Amino acid sequence: MLSKEGEWLKYTLNFTKAGNYNVSAKLSSDHPSKLSVILGNKTITTPIKESVRETWVMLGKFNFKKGINTIMIKAAAGGLEFHQLKFD
After folding, report:
1. CA quadruple 17, 25, 39, 47: dihedral sign
2. 59 and 9 in contact (C-beta within 8 Å)?
3. Cα dist. 48→40, 64, 66, 78, 84 in Å?
4. Closest listed residue to residue 48, CA positions, set 69, 70, 73
5. Mean pLDDT calculated for residue range 60-82
6. Taking the CB of the first residue and of the last residue of the chain, which one, N or C, has fewer CB atoms within 10 A?
7. What percent of the chain has pLDDT over 70?
8. What's residue 79's pLDDT?
9. Looking at residue 1, what is its pLDDT?
């Protein structure tokens, strides 16, 4: 859970194949908020404009290298419940 603005989660991921992947998150929030995804020097901030309940939200497309990658998910405004990440 990212209940307050500024809270973050960091994940270390091992990709078997380099490439561009869409990053999506399953979220819940009672109010508008913003969620940032940070990979290396790239940050994409996605506004969550309305209340959502366990809804998949596309957060952006990122280029992951083969092997170890570290990604940070940060509550940029407001707080929200963060349930799951998906990479397509």
Report:
1. positive
2. no
3. 23, 24, 31, 10, 16
4. 73
5. 94
6. C
7. 100
8. 85
9. 78
Whole-angstrom Cα distance, residue 67 to residue 83?
25
Please check whether residue 66 is in contact with residue 5, taking contact to mean a CB–CB distance below 8 angstroms: no
Length of the chain, in residues = 88
Cα–Cα dist 10/65, whole Å: 17
| Distance in angstroms (rounded) separating the CA atoms of residues 7 and 73 | 9
Sole residue written with tokens 């349930």: 83
Of the pLDDT bands very low, low, confident and very high (cuts 50, 70, 90), residue 51 is: confident
Under 8 Å between Cβ of 2 and 80: yes
Q: Is the pLDDT of residue 37 over 90?
A: yes
